[in-house]
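P.,

For your records, the input lines for the assembly:
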Amino acid sequence: MNLLFKALNDPTRRQILDLLRAGDLNAGEIAEQFAMSKPSISHHLDLLRQAGLVESTKQGQFINYSLNTTVLDELLGWLLSFQKPDTAPVDSPSNHLINH
Amino acid sequence: MNLLFKALNDPTRRQILDLLRAGDLNAGEIAEQFAMSKPSISHHLDLLRQAGLVESTKQGQFINYSLNTTVLDELLGWLLSFQKPDTAPVDSPSNHLINH
DNA sequence: TCAATAATTAGATGATTGTCTAATTGATTA
DNA sequence: TAATCAATTAGACAATCATCTAATTATTGA
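Structure tokens returned:
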């Protein structure tokens, strides 16, 4: 959950996710949508990949990025549990202090 | 959306939200659940308040904190739109570069 | 095989963040 | 009114983060 929230806590990364909804793109195609250096975008893609939000596959000299929304299910569950009270899922790490 | 993701991007703050599901608490009651100084918790509460996730009301010398889940609806909408493709909501700020 | 292209890695830098202690504000009560 | 208690604000500090340029790796095509 930590890596997920971290990845989502940046407008550029969220925009990358939104871009990928329309279909897969390679790193260069993503980078040219932003007024930011390619290494910076590469770093953002790395964080998104660490969170499991995107998957990368090498295709020749290009690296293709695609959306993986299954990770969002965990977040969705956490979020929905706020509407239905008293069904709080566990937010790791280390809530042993909290749960007595 | 920025303040919301920022507020959620910390395990302590998410645990505070989880605590408040059971019912309102004042600042001291919240602080004593954590192995952290009271000013630090106060700061976390401030960020949660800025994001609209909690509301604070002064009651005598105590300050009561309560959960406000309506802000989460925006996030919920954004999240759900990933399941139903091609219904991307707008993620402010400044996506003028992207949407040409 | 070599030059060009795609992308990442390395390293640096300024800004933001989470935490602390000390000081302050405001309310209660002896 | 003075002491105590709840909570925040102020200010400092180390760690993390977003970004940049320069260098590196790997693939392609002439």
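Two observations worth noting. Residues 10, 12, 36-37, 39-40, 43-44, 58, 60-62 of chain A lie near DNA strand D (CB under 10 Å from a C1'). Residues 92-100 of chain A have pLDDT under 50 and may be disordered.

Regards
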